[in-house]
């Protein structure tokens, strides 16, 4: 009944594809990708706008083109994959349970597992938007799927709450398909999307961005009919008398992405309180040996190129684990996010495993003209000048092993 | 000519239909919504109360206690999720202890089994009770139920036994004929010997169409918060607070799905379709919930909802027959759900006084069980998949629901016709993604199985469209 593979990759999106390819290139031969959708490529396939591949391929591509590059690479290697195959459960003993119409309910025993399960969008319920429970309130990604995969428009008079990148992309996309986009609201005093999207998706189409605003109430009988938009002060309290009413038929939400890890959470793998992804070490290994994580399931990235890069690294480390080259978990360097830093990934490092350390992090709010200070056991070891740091952008930092030693590494923002 | 027309397919309408389906009667249920259990019965605490709460000698007390006892057999026959997890009513100070002592007197009078717990005992059986708890009333017969499954199960069984259900049909007039009644809807005119008014918050309007004694039902809104299931332990009993000067109190409870529910508020509202939630009220609910627990899993919050309860000025249930053959169920607010098995027996007895009730020969007592793949063993699951590969095609990632289960929910009697209907029956859309991932797949299945276009698949009632138009091939702006 049980079948055996060296490596099971859960998720055939950008992270999973890159992970499987790099593991194969490291010499691992019995690899299988399990993908819940009927096709490989993941969410990239509904991202038909351009802007992908600038880092990985030095050229600008659409999401499906970017995915196709990896799928072509995959198909030149003897890597197995199943589509419409949902993983229902994994175990600490590295069993993977999945279900698929051809294979039935199948259990795989793996030597290593890479979780590349992506993220999900925060919903109306998660942020408690008050008002009537009507149709026509959905996440921007859901509307994107209806439009770009299924070929249906969800509405004609649209308002968008949240300035996340999917919301901005969808503002432009809905206009191009003939909808009227009345505005985008963001509760923070700054946008949560990439600057290029603010310019190319909102400003170029004269779509107003209401900063420090949020939806106070959704009104409608069966479908949303209007919203009340309120302005908030610095403490996020509504300012009386500053309400605006918009007559709409659709409210799209782009209010944040959360790594989607029910498989990991169900077996008690430690979750990072900030990223909501698993806590990992320098090898992207979770608290259970042999289970690795990468991509937006680990922490939400800004660009797919970095997701692919992280997938490649997960593939390399999982290969080393399978070959027995990774020692038992012995982290000796703990990473600590301080003043102005929202989180650092990984959370801990075994210095014996690496020649250099790649840190990914995000800042908690926008900064102009500041320094990034890196300290080891309380002593400054590096100070980097930054013209700006934005929460919307994932930052990274490479540190050579020669300046590191066991202890605590701290990262913080210093005013210039 | 119908023997009985039941107006309303909430839990009371469905229960009456289920009771009468045993007999050789021609029964029609008329419901204005797109599905059964679409209003009060689908938006409540989903608790089968033990019966210590209602004042002794009220109809509420009588029917609650009887109704509670009847649930095990009914849920077994209809394959409805029901668990007697017990309730704990908590008092944290002298004022609350005084109220608790009064409730204890009710419990004795109403003959409801209970135990009084001190501050140590209560934390022994429920470690998540607030550390402020001083005394508690434990009622072991209190239970949690899946209210959607209950109403669907009752109506499905009634329909399996020949009862007819007309959805999206609204009663406009009722005429008292010499023998029986004429019921005029927005679609048709029917005649019936007996009319049962189970219209919930609209029951006054139905009564007032035919009964010279005008009634008034005031909708009382209750707002709730729903939390996702999670792996860490949390409350395993239904926790109630007692009404005091600090507020009416709310409950914290697990649901039959492994979610958690906190609520309700209690506010009289003017509109019978006002099911909106508000920030202020939900903040108040959270504050009240802290009288019961020290920790609320706010990071697992997935949904808020509101339901309306039918309040009658008597503050009791009113089951009467103001004109022969016209039976009213008025003011069926909490504990209406717990009482419904007994309420429907009262109605059955009233029908029996007027019609000859002859048993049906081929009466089906049980309904075909649901597949519930999640609860099956590996072998059972593999066997089902061999019979039908749709059971291997997983649609809902959060709740792990297969295509086969959704198709089954559509094709049963009282089957799902809408996205919400599928959600109520087999749960895709109930989880963390709230339908973000699975809704397009559910819509495709509904379109295919009902042989309609994706465009015409609705979320709920008429007007609740999800898709506006196709981008290629056709443009329809008339919607």
Amount of beta strand of chain A: 35-45%
Secondary structure: helix percent of chain B: 25-40%
Oligomer: heterodimer
Ends of chain A: how far apart? 63 Å
Tell me the span between the first and last alpha carbons of chain B: 37 Å
- What's the tally of helices of chain A? 7
Based on the structure given, which CATH architecture of the largest domain in chain A is correct? 3-Layer(bba) Sandwich
User: What name does CATH use for the topology of the largest domain in chain A?
Assistant: FAD/NAD(P)-binding domain
| CATH level 1 name of the largest domain in chain A | Alpha Beta
Give the total of beta strands of chain A: 28
What's the SSE blueprint?
The complex is a heterodimer of chains A (416) and B (479).
Chain A: E1 3-10, H1 14-25, E2 31-34, E3 50-52, E4 61-62, H2 63-75, E5 80-82, E6 86-90, E7 95-100, E8 104-115, E9 119-121, E10 137-139, H3 140-150, E11 152-153, E12 157-161, H4 165-176, E13 180-186, H5 195-202, E14 209-211, E15 213-220, E16 224-231, E17 244-247, E18 250-253, E19 257-259, H6 262-265, E20 291-293, H7 304-322, E21 333-337, E22 341-345, E23 348-349, E24 356-363, E25 367-376, E26 379-389, E27 395-400, E28 407-415
Parallel strand pairs in A: 1-2, 1-8, 2-5, 8-20, 10-18, 12-13, 12-18, 13-14, 21-28
Antiparallel strand pairs in A: 3-4, 6-7, 7-8, 9-19, 15-16, 16-17, 21-23, 22-24, 24-27, 25-26, 25-28
Chain B: E1 2-7, H1 11-20, E2 27-30, E3 47-48, H2 59-78, E4 82-83, E5 87-91, H3 94-109, E6 115-118, H4 119-125, E7 135-139, E8 143-145, H5 147-160, E9 164-166, E10 171-176, E11 181-185, E12 189-197, H6 203-210, E13 217-227, E14 238-241, E15 251-254, E16 260-263, E17 267-268, H7 279-289, E18 301-312, E19 318-323, E20 326-330, H8 336-352, H9 378-387, E21 394-396, E22 401-402, H10 403-411, H11 419-426, H12 439-450, E23 469-470
Parallel strand pairs in B: 1-2, 1-12, 2-9, 5-14, 12-20
Antiparallel strand pairs in B: 3-8, 4-8, 5-7, 6-7, 10-11, 11-12, 13-16, 13-17, 13-18, 14-15, 15-16, 19-20, 21-22
């Amino acid at each position: 009944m049980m079948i055996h593979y060296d490596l099971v990759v859960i998720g055939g999106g950008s992270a999973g594809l890159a992970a499987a390819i790099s593991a194969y290139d490291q010499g691992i031969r019995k690899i299988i990708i399990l993908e819940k959708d009927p096709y490989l490529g993941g969410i990239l396939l509904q991202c038909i706008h351009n802007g992908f591949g600038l880092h990985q391929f030095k050229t600008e591509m659409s999401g499906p083109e970017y995915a196709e590059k990896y799928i072509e690479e995959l198909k030149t290697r003897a890597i197995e994959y199943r589509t419409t195959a949902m993983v229902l459960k994994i175990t600490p003993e590295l069993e993977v349970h999945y279900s698929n119409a051809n294979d039935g309910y199948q259990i795989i025993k793996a030597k290593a597992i890479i979780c590349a399960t992506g993220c999900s969008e925060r919903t109306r319920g998660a942020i408690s938007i008050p008002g009537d429970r009507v149709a026509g309130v959905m996440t921007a990604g859901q509307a994107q799927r209806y439009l770009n995969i299924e070929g249906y428009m969800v509405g004609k008079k649209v308002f968008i709450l949240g300035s996340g990148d999917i919301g901005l992309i969808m503002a432009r996309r809905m206009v191009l398909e003939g909808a009227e986009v009345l505005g985008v609201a963001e509760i923070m005093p700054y946008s949560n999307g990439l600057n290029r999207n603010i310019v190319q998706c909102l400003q170029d189409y004269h779509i107003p961005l209401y900063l420090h605003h949020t939806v106070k109430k959704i009104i409608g009988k069966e479908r949303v009919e209007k919203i009340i938009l309120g302005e908030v002060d610095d403490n996020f309290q509504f300012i009386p008398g500053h309400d605006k009413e918009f007559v709409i038929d659709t409210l799209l939400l782009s209010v944040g992405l959360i790594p989607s890890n029910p498989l990991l959470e169900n077996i008690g793998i430690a979750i990072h309180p900030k990223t909501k992804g698993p806590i990992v070490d320098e090898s992207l290994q979770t608290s259970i040996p042999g289970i690795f994580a990468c991509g937006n399931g680990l922490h939400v990235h800004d660009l797919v190129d970095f997701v692919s890069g992280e997938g490649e690294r997960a593939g390399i480390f999982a290969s080393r684990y399978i070959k027995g080259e990774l020692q038992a978990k012995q982290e000796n360097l703990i990473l600590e996010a301080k003043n102005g830093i929202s989180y650092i990934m990984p959370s801990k490092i075994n210095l014996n495993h690496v020649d250099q350390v790649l840190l990914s992090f995000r800042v908690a709010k926008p900064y102009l003209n500041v320094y990034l200070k890196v300290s080891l056991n309380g002593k400054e070891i590096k100070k980097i000048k930054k013209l700006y740091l934005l929460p919307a952008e994932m930052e990274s930092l490479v540190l050579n092993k020669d300046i590191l030693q066991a202890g605590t590494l701290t990262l913080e923002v210093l005013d210039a | 000519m119908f023997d009985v027309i039941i107006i309303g397919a909430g839990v009371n309408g469905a229960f009456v239909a289920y009771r009468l389906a045993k007999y050789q009667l021609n029964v029609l249920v008329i419901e204005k919504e797109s599905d059964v259990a679409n209003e009060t019965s689908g938006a409540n605490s989903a608790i089968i109360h033990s019966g210590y709460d209602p004042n002794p000698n009220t109809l509420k007390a009588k029917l609650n206690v009887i109704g509670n006892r009847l649930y095990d057999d009914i849920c077994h026959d209809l394959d409805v999720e029901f668990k007697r997890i017990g309730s704990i009513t908590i008092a944290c100070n002298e004022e609350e202890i005084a109220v608790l002592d009064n409730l204890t007197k009710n419990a004795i009078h109403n003959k409801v089994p209970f135990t009084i717990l001190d501050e140590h005992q209560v934390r022994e059986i429920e470690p998540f009770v607030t550390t402020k708890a001083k005394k508690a009333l434990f009622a072991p017969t209190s239970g949690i139920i899946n209210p959607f499954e209950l109403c669907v199960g009752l109506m499905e069984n009634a329909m399996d036994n020949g009862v007819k259900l007309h959805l999206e049909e609204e009663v406009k007039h009722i005429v008292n004929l010499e023998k029986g009644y004429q019921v005029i809807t927005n679609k048709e005119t029917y005649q019936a010997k007996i009319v049962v008014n189970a219209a919930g918050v609209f029951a006054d309007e139905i009564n007032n169409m035919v009964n010279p004694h005008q009634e008034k039902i005031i909708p009382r809104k209750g707002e709730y918060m729903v939390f996702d299931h999670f792996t860490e332990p949390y409350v395993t009993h239904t926790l109630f607070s007692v009404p005091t000067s600090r507020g009416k109190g709310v409950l914290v409870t697990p649901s039959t799905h492994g979610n958690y529910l906190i609520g309700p508020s209690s506010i009289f509202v003017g509109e019978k379709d006002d099911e909106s939630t508000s920030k202020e009220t939900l903040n108040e609910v959270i504050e009240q919930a802290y009288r019961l627990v020290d920790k609320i899993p706010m990071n697992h919050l997935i949904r808020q909802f509101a339901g309306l309860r039918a309040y009658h000025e008597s503050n009791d249930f009113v089951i009467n027959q103001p004109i022969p053959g016209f039976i009213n169920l008025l003011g069926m607010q909490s504990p209406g759900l717990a009482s419904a098995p007994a309420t429907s027996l009262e109605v059955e007895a009233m029908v029996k006084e007027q019609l000859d009730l002859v048993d049906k020969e081929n009466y089906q007592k049980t309904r075909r069980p649901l597949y519930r793949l999640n609860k099956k063993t590996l072998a059972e699951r593999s066997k089902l998949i061999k019979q039908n590969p749709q059971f291997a095609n997983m649609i809902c990632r959060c709740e792990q629901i297969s295509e086969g289960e959704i198709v089954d929910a559509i094709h049963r009697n009282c089957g799902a016709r809408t996205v919400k209907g599928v959600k109520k029956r087999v749960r895709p859309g109930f989880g963390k993604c709230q339908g973000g991932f699975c809704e397009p797949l559910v819509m495709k299945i509904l379109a295919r199985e009902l042989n309609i276009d994706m465009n015409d698949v609705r979320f709920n009632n008429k007007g609740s469209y999800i898709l506006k138009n196709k981008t290629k091939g056709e443009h329809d702006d008339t919607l």
